[in-house]
Every structure is written in C-alpha cells, then in structure tokens.
Amino acid sequence: MRTTAIVCxxxxxxxxxxxxxxxxxxxxxxxxxxSKPTGLATYEGRDPGETIEDPIVVDYLPLFDSGDTCPFIDxxxxxxxxxxxxxxxxxxxxxxxxxQVVTIDLCASQYDTKVFVYENTYTPGFPHACNDDHAGxxxxxxxxxxxxxxxxxxxxxxxxxxxxxxxxxxxxxVVDYLPCAxxxxxxxGETEPYCMDPENDVDNGGCNSEPPVFDHLDPSEDTxxxxxxxxxxxxxxxxxxxxxxxxxxxxxxxxxxxxxTANFELRIGIVDGREGCENVSSFYSYVDVPTCGWAxxxxxxxxxxxxxxxxxxxxEGVYCGEDYQCWLTGYTPVTPVESASWGTxxxxxx
Length: 350
Hints:
Layout (H helix, E strand, L loop, with lengths): L1 E2 L7 H9 L10 E2 L24 E3 L4 E6 L21 E6 L4 E6 L7 E7 L9 E3 L13 E6 L4 E8 L6 E8 L38 E2 L7 E7 L1 E4 L2 E4 L2 E7 L3 E9 L3 E7 L12 E5 L5 E7 L2 E9 L9 E8 L12 H7 L2
Parallel strand pairs: 3-5, 12-16
Antiparallel strand pairs: 1-2, 4-11, 5-10, 6-9, 6-11, 7-8, 7-10, 13-22, 14-15, 16-21, 17-20, 17-22, 18-19, 18-21
C-alpha cells in the first residue's frame, strides 16, 4: 500500500488536511501502490555483494557508487512498509569509524528501489533503518532515502533492494548529514515557538488558526530571505505538522520565485488568498523535496493577497525546532510615478 495526499472538497476539510494527517487523527489513508517491476532479474548471483557474509566493503565515507541489482539473487526483504518483495538485492558493509548521522540516498536510481540497514548482524523483521518510498525522491517519490545514526565500532550492512520484483541500475550515495538550513537567532523569520498547534498559534498558523493569522512580508526590490522552524507532533490521538503561512500582497501582476531548503522532508506551497480562507480548496501549486533538497516554485500571480505555505511533507518523524530557510524574488513594490505639468508632458512629444 502507498500513502497518498488526501483530496478534500470542503474548505474546512482542506484546512484540516493542510495541518494534520486526517480529520480522524490517523495517518494519511493508503491506496494500493501501482508499479510495474522494472528490469529483468537474471538471478545469476555475484560476489561480492550477494549476502552480508560477502558484502561490498566500504572503507570510509562518503560513498558514491552505482551498479545493477538484476544479476543478483533475492536474499533479503523488510517491510517498510511494503512486504512480499522478490527483488534482487546488493549488500554493502561499513565499519563505523566515529559516531555519526548519515543519509543513504537512492534518488537518482533508474527503478523503484528499497533500502534497509542491519546493525552488526542479520535481524530479519527488525532492521536498524528502512525505507521504500520517500517524498520528492525520484519520479513519483518511488525511490528511497533515509537518515540514520551510525555508532562508532559497529558494522552496518546496507541492502539495496527493490519494490516487489523491481531491479535495475542504482545510484547509491552515503554521506555524513550536515544541516543545510540555519535560522540565526534574531534573523528575519517567524516569531512563534516550536511546533505550535493551530488552536494556540497566534503568529502564523494561517487558515488553520481561528482567527487566521499570517506573518506579513514587505515587498522589496531585493531577494527576501526569511527562516523558521517546524516539526511534527502527536496530540489528541492525531498526528500533526507545524505549518507556517506567510502573506504577500501583490500590488501588480508579478512573476515570483519561491525557494526553500530544510533540515527535514519539506513541502512549500502557494495558496490563493484573494477570497479569504473560507474559499481555499487546494494549493495553487506546491512541491515536495527530501531533507536538504532544493524546493522551487516559479509562478506569475495576479494582483491580490497570496500565502506562502511552509511545513513538513510528512506527519511523523520530524523533531520540533528543525530549521528551514526561504527566499522570495519578484515581490516588488509599485514604482512611484512623478507628477508632471501638462506643458512638460507636451514637451516630451514635440
């Protein structure tokens, strides 16, 4: 089963979708994942990389490697969350030199991937970390990306696998995680505390707050830079995400570019605010990217009020207080026009 975005038809229901996983407090509803296996498994077997007993040994990080899983045999599978895979898999091993947080990235691979990690030994059903699909990673998010902690002295087995029977060319990147966004204290940005729930958010909860509240951005000839924090939390038997809304008031049709990066799985969106919150039924446009990915929206917008939406693309697993940074260009003030006498105007055209 693959989780998908909720489609909300009523304005109030949509606002709940923008803030929480669902109106019932459960995670987003799932639908059947439709994906045809790619590649053709030959199951010839290959050494090294076939099992954790004969892995491809990684001496140090960062690791940038590529290969083809199709010649390998299906030795392992983990449900994250899809089970029943018969795809060939390739195993890498790494003895951790110092305790570190790493990201494992298969986003550039050419098939529907899965990746999971064992710590020190094979623990079926209990991997150290596991991911099948990750929002913003590869076509339709059908590629794999995860972040996990490695502890000094332990051996980690990274298994490159596939969904169902998929195999093919993979691009593997394992690197130290370094925060890509930094919201300096006192810098331009939101003023709310970490992970403020909509009922108590009096700063920038947008249409999710009652009454609606927004951080207002002033137009500028220069690129506007602003930042904030976000995260996910559990409250009243529901999974929620902290969503931040920034208001711009366009005095003329404007071609804007809205960009952002974050230390978490990020969504940015543009919401049409010209008819108020009661008439909001969907994002005007939005994009999801992985942690430290670069999100960009480029739109030509009519005169009026518009809202820039920032928050996690997921409803669980983002620690409150994680930073994001945003940039906005094209939100410019009206150019003042100097008054001129009729005689001066006539002189221009003589």
